[in-house]
Amino acid sequence: MGEIATEAESIGSGRGLDPPVAGHPGDWLSPEVLGGLVRVADGAILLASGLAVALFTGAEPARHPLLPWALALGLLLGLPFCQLAGTYADRRRLDMGGQALRALTGWALAVAALLALVLGTPAAPPLPTGWLAGWALGGAAGLAGLRLLLAFRVARWRREGRLGRNTVVVGAGELGQRFVEEVRKRDRSVRLIGLFDDRRDRVPEFVGGYPVLGTIDDLLRFAREHRVDEVVVALPWSAEGRLLECLKKLRALPCDVRLCTDLIGFHLPNRGLSQLGGVPVLQVFERPMSGTAVLVKAIEDRLLAALALLALAPFLVVIAAAVRLSSPGPALYRQKRWGFNGEVIEVLKFRTMRLEACGDGTEPDLGHTRKGDPRVTLLGAFLRRTSLDELPQLLNVLKGEMSLVGPRPHAVAHNERYAGQIDRYLARHRVKPGITGWAQIRGCRGEIRNLADMQRRVELDLEYIQNWSLAFDLKILFRTLLVGVRDPRAY
What we know:
Strand order of the largest sheet: 3-4-2-1-5-6
Radius of gyration: 28 Å
Strand content: 5-15%
Low-confidence stretches: 1-26, 361-366
Number of strands: 12
Distance between the termini: 67 Å
């Protein structure tokens, strides 16, 4: 057994791979444990800061009977809003900088909600303003300070290998080779330390640069001397007998054992097994938003769209009048586009083209607007460059046909063209289209010159759908205000 360990370490260092981390297999530290501890610490920080500010400002429950209730309500709102902001998402557990921004966003929303509830209850006794302001600032400082301190510790734990997951692969045949290739291509942070296969005479000595260290029995002994956090069984499901025999041996290991499917290379989101009528089934796709997320998204859309329309109403009237005066024709233009679940909707825009170029709103010629396009009016060029022509879509948001943030709706003819050329193109329609989106603020605006341009937009749209959070939406809206008025690629 010592020969296997020595071989793994020497080969790993010689080929630029990570050797296995020595230590007890039961090391308690992991990204999951760290995430749970941070969540508990956040609750303690918010509670302690609220009590400390009350003591410092002299706010006593006897004089302010609503204070204990406000403190409890703030705690009940604080952590869920941080959760909705994406603070505790799996892939962000070790990103302390990103966590700090999301935690501050969630806490700010919780304080705003608490303030709205207090102000919306006229009969309730007033809260001490100094206490509420102090708690808001103290809680924010505590949440950010915790992550600043943890950033240094997490960096050290990472160097020590304690936050990595030592992964071994059982099966060095075709399926195991495809698995290693895909993992190295998709995520270099996965710490593969070797492979094991009972059929040593039929498999190569190395797979993707990783050594084949022995048989499954060798793996059982290897795991007693080195930390193995995860075992991936990459055996074909058609070899049922061999697969079951392997799993019987591996159930003695105190680590995660995962079964690799034959669908390597087909992109599947992070899902797991569920049960349907008591029968285990592999969950391939699920609704991008459900439950509370749907409610939060709907409130965000309706509330912000209504506020924006009220604030911008005089400005919208001026733009509409200018469009009418600049060229003959209506101020608004209705364009047929695909919406949620492939439903055709009529998207509103300020008219930016000459009336004879507008057609019936379906754009049958697939003509993308180009720089210096003669169809675009002088005022229309300015509206398109600043994205002001999209403002009437706030009405589409209020009607529930669109969201403030989401994949941009493409013309019907464009969808019919690209759906057969780009893999997963139609998956964009699993959520409502948006006035702005992740692709737009990442530079995917303006003319589509080739298929790669559209491919990039689709990839960013799907990235948004998979990683949606309230904080993500607010980030996109904020950056839209900066990018929308100065992007030279919008014309």
